[in-house]
Amino acid sequence: MSDSTRRGFARASAAALAAASYSRVLGANDRVRLGFIGLGNRGSNLLNRTKEYGDQQITAVCDLLDPLLDRAVEAAGTNPARYKDFRRLLDGDDVDAVVIATPDHWHALMMIAACRAGKDVYVEKPLSLTVVEGRKMVEIAAETQRVVQVGIHRRSVPFCAEAAEIVRSGEIGPVTMARCGVALNQWPNGIGSPPDREPPAGLDWDLYLGPAPEAPYNENRHLFLYRWFYDYGGGQLTDNGVHFLDLIQWGLGKERPQAVTALGGKYALQDNRDVPDTMQALWEYPGGTQVSFFQSSCNAAPFSNTKPLLAEFRGTKATMNVYFDGWELVPEGNSSRSFPARGPLEGDAGAGYRDSFSKPLEARSGSGSADPLRHIRNFLDCIKSRNKPNCDVETAHRSTTTANIATIAYRSRQLLEWDAEREEFTNRPEANARLHYDYRPPWKL
């Protein structure tokens, strides 16, 4: 038997064993017993959406704050067990799968621990805080044969799938540019600059920090606002940007950029965040495509002439605009015309020249809802079938890596060439030190 055959047999045997052991615990028509870890804004939203399905039961909840636990227990309506330490929840035999909606710096350790405890996992985006974490998560999911769904929920949204398929089919022609971004206005005070203080009563701040560097308690480093600190998140680039970049890579059929750069800074806001308030990132993909992401926290005007976009694909035959509630395809009306060189646009001739660039021959559109409910349904179905979910861990790792290497480019102010197969930078080896960070003891990856 060859080595490759032996490895294939071993993988098949492991998969069969996992499916068999699962079937002994949960029949196809039984309820999936769920534990929720992290019950803030996103966690409570997922819990409330999940309980709409009758083939699940919320049997455990975990958070460091008693008020959030109280709210979750009441919302669940199933008298779930309460935990403050996620390890105790994972030790129990009353949970088949967990939903992880904690700050980003906890995603890797919790997902890995859950898989090793024999639990299937729904983990929120971004998958990981670092590229090294993401690759380890992929490896552990495969090793343990667990179902891992990542909360890039537009992978389960029909109109997003339609838009991606149209772009990938070549209908809009070769795509040389695609873009996405986030525009909001928090000027001038942003999230503010509250002083450091003692943690609220009952909060285990040391456990909250976990693998992250030691830091005094600050209310902006906790709950929703943790996103604006590099110890726990990556700002808009990893928070919303991972959603948008995943959609772009899905449409392009390209998951591996070959170069990245980014510029930005705190240009206007007066607060204590350490992520930029203004930033632009640019990636180059094999085959001749540029992808860009912009973040503006000081001006909320949409970056299109219509309404805010999830993503824009600019092809040689048409432009695909994907919005939060649908898509629009606008074919090029001028691809077969040639224009002589002209001087300044003046008078009627100039107006006609301008107008010729704004008259599409036709437009098509599709619409729908980007609610995460379908994504949760897919997760529950895959727990039972053992099929690969719509946003499996490898797919999410690719999209999260795209955002994470842009963060490295921004923080190092460099153009970085990326070897996506080996997952390392080739022109600036010193930048590879930023692919992970030293965990605070006793935590280990």
Question: Can you describe what's shown?
Answer:
This protein is α/β, with parallel strands linked by helices and about 450 residues long. It has 13 helices and 16 strands. The chain folds into two domains: about 5-155 and about 380-385, 3-Layer(aba) Sandwich (Rossmann fold); about 155-375 and about 400-435, Dihydrodipicolinate Reductase, domain 2 (2-Layer Sandwich). It has helices at about 5-25, 40-50, 65-75, 85-90, 105-115, 130-145, 160-170, 205-210, 235-240, 240-250, 345-355, 375-385, 395-410, and strands spanning about 30-35, 55-60, 80-85, 95-100, 120-125, 150, 175-185, 260-265, 280-285, 290-295, 310-315, 320-325, 325-330, 365, 415-420, 425. A ten-stranded mixed sheet has the order 14-13-12-11-7-10-9-8-15-16, covered by helices on one side. Strands 3-2-1-4-5-6 form a six-stranded parallel sheet, with helices on both faces. Strand 11 (about 310-315) and strand 12 (about 320-325) form a beta hairpin. Helix 7 (about 160-170) crosses helix 10 (about 240-250). It is globular, with a radius of gyration of 23 Å. It starts with a helix and ends in a 20-residue tail after the last strand.
